[in-house]
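Lab notebook, bench 4. The sequencing result for the construct came back, and we need a structural model before the next group meeting so we can plan mutations. Quick request posted to the team channel:

Model the 3D structure of this chain.
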Amino acid sequence: MSLNIISQNDEKVSVKLKGIPLQYANALRRLCLNGVPIYAIDTVDILINSSVLADEGIAHRLGLIPIKTELSAVQQNNESDKIMFTLDTGEIDETRTVLSGELKSQDDIIKPISDNIPIITLAPGQRLKIEAYARLGRGTEHAKWNSANISTLTESEKDDEKVLTVETTGALEPQHIILSSIEELSRRLDEFKNLLSDLK
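Done. Here's the predicted structure in token form:
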């Protein structure tokens, strides 16, 4: 069995899988999509909201902002640990769009992948003040924790070879998604083997 990188950049990686049974390759594909833990905003406390958008709408938008996640943070923290974000626009003097770069994180690494993701447009006299909390989660719980936008498995021109392509949301580097998925698949297979042993 072998795994070789065909192409990669900051957004996408394609690897050639050789000698790997289809069921394992497909399990790896699914883990790349939604089995690797990443951070996403999960709870939001709205302190002031005089905008036209309901609190629930703002919380939903915040939850869908991809959050940069370091593998070291995933390994050191558990899924109950939370990272706090704050945002206070003050009272707006002129109509403007509030962007993700205005979210202040208590962690220098765990923050939005871009400063230019729109959250809401405020009119003069309006204000938004929130406290939000991000935690580790997996896409099997909610799509906002998907580590990849796409994860596809295709047959190559050669027998017994498949091509796995993973495009990241930006939370993790694409090659790290694959490496973490391999570790997760190995862990789950070991757990399954132990379970079968206990049944005997």
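The helical segments are 22-34, 55-63, 71-76, 174-199.
Will bring this to the meeting.
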